[in-house]
Amino acid sequence: MSDFSLVGSAALVTGSSRGIGEGMALGLARAGAELVLHGLDETPSDSSLHHWPYLRHDLLKEDGSQRLIEAAFEHSPGMDLLVCNVGSFFDAPFLQMSEAIWDKTMRLNVEATYFLVQGFAKRLIAEDRRGAVVIVSSTNGFQAEYNSTAYDTSKGALVMMTRSIALSLADHGIRVNGIAPGFIRTPMTERSLANVPNLQSKLENKIAMTRIGTPADCAGAAVFLCSEASAYITGQILVVDGGLTLGQLPRT
């Protein structure tokens, strides 16, 4: 369907050198979008993305979000799509949590996204252009996880941020939606799979579709929410978890 085409659009995808961000970037490119990529690594891991502009930029630095948005528009003045995927996990158990870890989590996972969307929206509004934003939260924004208090709180904040900013930008023709991935194979989750005994089999027994997700599983959701196929959708969170959160108990 042509409504799913992103030909003529351009997207900044944050945190797109690895994992879910890279998977979504590949999906947007296949749908015809031009890209501006972002990360902390030297280059994206997938060589097919190497011809797109890549901004190596630390969003924890002062004015990091504004500087990244400005740099992205320098590369792509007609940019009309923003996918906010950047984020990470720094947690300690609740009784050992420090203000430094809490602040780092909130600055990267929440504050950076908030001001990226603001900078993006200001540019589009000034130029009287429409656009779309996709904010990547997590099923952790709905369901808590042991020893994940700061991360869970940050992902819950992104769920409400998506809804609240969608209201603020609706009159300007800028749609804001979210994706909540479940357990997806990324460099971060691979460490958990390697270190937690039997975690993979436990997850596969709990996930309705009986497999752990891949970054490619998030690509279609990102394309849909960026495209005209979702033109009448804003403020919604699309869960991409293979059915992880559907049932209370695993298979017996």
Description of the structure:
The protein has 252 residues and is α/β, with parallel strands linked by helices. The protein has a single domain, classed as NAD(P)-binding Rossmann-like Domain (Rossmann fold, 3-Layer(aba) Sandwich), CATH 3.40.50. Helix content is 40%, strand content 14%. The protein has helices at 19-30, 64-75, 99-126, 149-169, 187-195, 199-206, 216-226; strands at 10-13, 34-39, 54-56, 81-84, 131-136, 174-181, 237-240. Strands 3-2-1-4-5-6-7 form a seven-stranded parallel sheet, with helices on both faces. α1 links the parallel β1 (10-13) and β2 (34-39). α1 crosses α7 (216-226) and α2 runs parallel beside α3. The radius of gyration is 18 Å and the shape is globular. It starts with 9 loop residues before the first strand and ends in a 12-residue tail after the last strand. The relative contact order is 0.16. The mean pLDDT is 96.
